[in-house]
Amino acid sequence: MEGMELKPQFDELQKIFDRCIKHACRVLEECIATKTARLDPDQRQEQERLEYNRIADELAELYLHHSVLSDLRFCYSEPAFLWEGGFFEALHADEKKKYLAFSVSSFDYSQYERDNTAYDAELPYFSAVVNIVVRERYAAYLRQREISLSESAPKSAIAVPPIAETENPFDSILTDEQIAYLAAAVNDVKMFNVSLSADELKAIFACKPQAIVRSNNNRLVAFFFSGLSSRGLITPNWQSVIANHKLFLSKDTSRDKYINQSDLSTATNYIRDVGVEGKYATLEKYLMQVKRL
Questions:
Q1: pLDDT reported for residue 121
Q2: Which DSSP string do the residues of 232-244 spell out, in sequence order?
Q3: pLDDT digit string (tens) for 144-188?
Q4: pLDDT at 251
Q5: What is the pLDDT of the chain when averaged over all its residues?
Q6: Closest Cα to residue 266, out of 28, 56, 42?
Q7: Contact (Cβ atoms closer than 8 angstroms) between residue 135 and residue 59
């Protein structure tokens, strides 16, 4: 079985993961909502901050003991993370065979509820995958609750992105041909919420965007720009350029929250310790080729 021949099996396996993940997420979300329902805003924020830290510690522990699952931190929000992410490719050959041979109709959810490791032998890392995705999505939920709380307070209107005072804030040496090639790269991995034309990407490198686009994955953004910087194609200070010129909206924050330098620094720290897999491998192929154009 190769290529698209695998897709039906992955689609059915994804449904199993989704059912287990959805239930666990709902329980956690309802629990924290109940705990904080009668708290004032400051108390609620503190309680949820403690909960977020607890989840972050649990995630760190899970990733520490299951390095094969490191790609999940980048694709946990994908509806088809099993197919789109690099988890399957990171498995050993015999582990892959188990996933491909598993009879989806044999999965007994009641058995899983009694023991969430019941299928780990037949589907390697099954319970760990569920635990990681649940916690990543719950952490994102907690971040969104914090944003919603801050939005309820009076605030001034968001500032208009500043116009670049220089012609080349990124110190870019990219040619029009290279920018067109990179536009295909960012569209291929769906880095932003819309596809970009070569002219639109060129305007972004000039810090004069035609429209502000939203990041689908801040870590992909960091991987892309750090890759250009490491190849000497743009400034090493790309993080501050993006932040100061308010070039992108962040996926994990409110509609009017720009990606800031802290977001980019955190994303860059994440990508330093992970293997180049999935969408990161796709981007890496483009980045390796761009200097040859």
A1: 96
A2: TSS-TTHHHHHHH
A3: 877 666 655 544 444 445 555 567 899 999 999 999 999 999 999
A4: 77
A5: 86
A6: 56
A7: yes
Return the amino acid letter for 164.
Answer: A
- pLDDT value of position 248: 92
Percent composition of the chain: helix, strand, coil (DSSP 3-state, to 5): 65, 0, 35
Phi, psi at residue 249, to the nearest 5°?
A: -90, 145
Task: Give the three-state DSSP class for 214.
Answer: strand
Buried b or exposed e, range 249-262, using 16+ CB within 10 angstroms: bbbbbeeebbbbee
Secondary structure (H, E, C), 84-149 = HCCHHHHCCHHHHHHHHHCCHHHCCHHHHHHCCCCCCCCCCCHHHHHHHHHHHHHHHHHHHHHHHH
Structure tokens that stand for 16 in this block? 């199993």
Main-chain phi, psi angles of 86, to 5 degrees:
-100, 10
- The answer to whether 282 touches 188, Cβ cutoff 8 Å, is yes
CB of 167 closer than 8 Å to CB of 193 = no
CA distance 201 to 192: 11
For 249, which DSSP code? Answer: E
**For the segment 18-71, what is each residue's pLDDT rounded down to a tens digit?**
999 999 999 999 999 999 888 888 888 889 989 989 998 999 999 899 988 988
β-strand partners of 169: none
Measured CA to CA, the distance from residue 111 to residue 159 in angstroms comes to 54
How far lies 26's CA from each of 9, 18, 95, 213, in Å? 26, 12, 30, 30
Residue with tokens 């023991």: 115
Distance between CA atoms of residues 174 and 116, nearest Å:
51
Question: Whole-angstrom Cα distance, residue 87 to residue 14?
Answer: 13
Residues in the chain: 293
- Cα separation values, 111 from 16, 115, 118, 201, Å: 13, 6, 7, 51
pLDDT at 76: 85
